[in-house]
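User: I've been trying to design a sequence by hand for this structure and keep getting stuck. Would you show me what you'd pick, starting by listing the structure so we're on the same page?

Assistant: Good idea, let's start from the same input. This is the structure you sent:
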């Protein structure tokens, strides 16, 4: 795998402005890294000025052609992931890409193949792996806290898609997003289920669109929503583990996430309420043995090092996303593989594609 030699600073270009801000914040907390270029189609100068980024572009092709660049970090709509990544890899640039990795498993597979052929570092932005409560859950599962896993249930309820007064955006258009809430938040749940318990073997899903129309951005009328805003599916994982996953963008009451894993000897549950200041840590509950009562388990301080909640607008990027950027930079500098990688992104994409097919057919679908 190609690596950055010596102690020279890693020069990164960030493409995309909304979640790109988290990328920039995280690279700012990553040693020996400099964000030297930024691209956004409209008003890129504003964010570049805030973070003192010297090279500013409105066309990603110009950024990719910038001499001396080592890597890019992508925070653009899903339909752009494949073309930008493929061009970046052809120029010898390492790539950190937002989730979902692509519009479908074919695009994701091509991205992985190109990156590995070129010997370049590739990562998928599954930053929720680094919630301290989830990290601790992973450790306890590996220590055998629940015994043999039998059941897993994962939920992510939010309300961002519930307001019919909001303007229609790219996330509502199938040709630009591929899927709706399944690719927005559901893909995180798919990745967490794989990471914590094991791979998916088959799925059976149901998707719904409850808010069917939103105003067009230019105020000229109403546009139809072409993707789901709620998706519920059951699954079988390797070893026969039963799982249920529900992602909804129309559930009033804020954003609530939970992960429950039940096994032959006990249970673990992570609960996250985004309305609480310490949501970035999460709560971990556990119980072992027959007729036991669950208790709140401590989160080791080593898992919360670097977390600063004094500025909530910066904390997610500086804490959660910096786990990704540090791994990304270290891999480029040492040549060691990084994760979560495009391989993880492809695996999650295969599940998304299978759930979409299942919802359309109303039947079980095997995950490729």
């Amino acid at each position: 795998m190609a690596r950055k030699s010596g102690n020279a600073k890693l020069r990164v270009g960030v493409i995309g402005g909304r979640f790109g801000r988290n990328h920039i914040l995280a690279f700012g907390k990553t040693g020996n890294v400099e964000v030297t270029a930024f691209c956004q189609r409209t008003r890129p100068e504003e964010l570049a000025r805030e973070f003192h980024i010297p090279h500013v572009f409105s066309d990603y092709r110009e950024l990719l052609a910038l001499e001396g660049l080592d890597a890019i970090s992508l925070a653009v709509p899903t339909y752009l992931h494949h073309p930008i990544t493929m061009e970046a890899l052809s120029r010898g640039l390492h790539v950190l890409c937002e989730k979902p990795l692509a519009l479908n498993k074919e695009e994701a597979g091509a991205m992985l193949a190109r990156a590995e052929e070129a010997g370049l570092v590739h990562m998928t932005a599954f930053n929720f792996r680094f919630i301290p409560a989830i990290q601790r859950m992973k450790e306890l599962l590996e220590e055998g806290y629940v015994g043999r896993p039998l059941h897993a249930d994962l939920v992510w309820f939010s309300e961002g898609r519930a307001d019919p007064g909001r303007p229609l955006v790219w996330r509502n258009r199938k040709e630009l997003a591929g899927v709706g809430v399944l690719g927005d938040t559901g893909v995180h749940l798919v990745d967490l289920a794989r990471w914590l318990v094991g791979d998916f073997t088959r799925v059976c899903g149901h998707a719904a669109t409850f808010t069917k129309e939103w105003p067009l951005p230019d105020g000229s009328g109403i546009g139809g929503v072409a993707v789901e805003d709620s998706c519920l599916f059951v699954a079988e994982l390797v070893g026969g583990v039963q799982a249920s996953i529900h992602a909804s963008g129309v559930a009033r009451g804020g954003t609530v996430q939970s992960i429950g894993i039940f096994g032959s000897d006990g249970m673990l549950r992570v609960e996250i309420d985004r309305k609480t200041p310490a949501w970035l840590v999460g709560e971990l509950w556990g119980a072992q043995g027959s007729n036991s009562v669950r208790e709140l388990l401590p989160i080791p301080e080593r898992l919360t090092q670097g977390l600063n909640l004094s500025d909530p607008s910066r904390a997610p990027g500086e804490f959660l996303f910096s786990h990704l950027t540090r791994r990304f930079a270290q891999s480029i500098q040492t040549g060691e593989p990084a994760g979560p990688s495009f391989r993880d992104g492809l695996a999650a994409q295969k599940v998304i594609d299978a759930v979409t097919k299942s919802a359309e057919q109303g039947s079980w679908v095997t995950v490729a």
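That's my pick for every position. To get oriented when you compare it with your attempt: Residues 71 and 94 are 4 Å apart (CA to CA). The chain has a mean pLDDT of 95.
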